[in-house]
Specification:
GO terms for molecular function: dioxygenase activity; lyase activity; metal ion binding; methylmalonyl-CoA epimerase activity. The chain is an alpha/beta fold and 128 residues long. 20% of the residues lie in helices and 36% in strands.
Length: 128
């Protein structure tokens, strides 16, 4: 990796780039860095660069058919107040894929983008 890299990048294969951009910018606070919709868009939130690749993109075309579905991997977005974030997302009509789950590291809930890719909304446990 070169020194000028400032983002950690994750590629998500999506069915509809514009719907994915709307979801990530409108619901989860990402900003558009670059868009070549309908093939591709590049959105960022803090140090996370999410590469949204539609069916005609080189990223999607390079993906073997047996791996071309959304999967168990997910991005992990940290929030200060999970309850407030749940209320905000519910108010926006975002469907949840899980109930709130709490463990020793914190609490989380799962949502999916329009293509079915998982997004974990996470609030770390309070530290003494």
């Amino acid at each position: 990796m070169t020194a000028h890299e400032e983002f950690a990048g994750v590629r998500y294969i999506v069915d509809d780039v514009q719907a994915a951009v709307g979801f990530y910018t409108g619901q989860l606070g990402f900003e558009v860095r670059m868009s070549a919709a309908p093939a591709f868009a590049d959105v960022v939130r803090g140090p996370l660069r999410l590469l949204l690749s539609g069916p005609s993109s080189s990223g999607a075309r390079a993906t073997p058919e047996e791996h071309a579905v959304s999967g168990r991997n997910r991005i992990h977005l940290v929030v200060d107040d999970l309850d407030a974030e749940i209320d905000r997302l519910k108010g926006a009509g975002v469907p949840f894929l899980s109930e709130r789950v709490t463990g020793p590291g914190g609490s989380q809930i799962l949502v999916a983008d329009p293509a079915g890719n998982l997004v974990e909304i996470f609030q770390p446990a309070a530290r003494p």
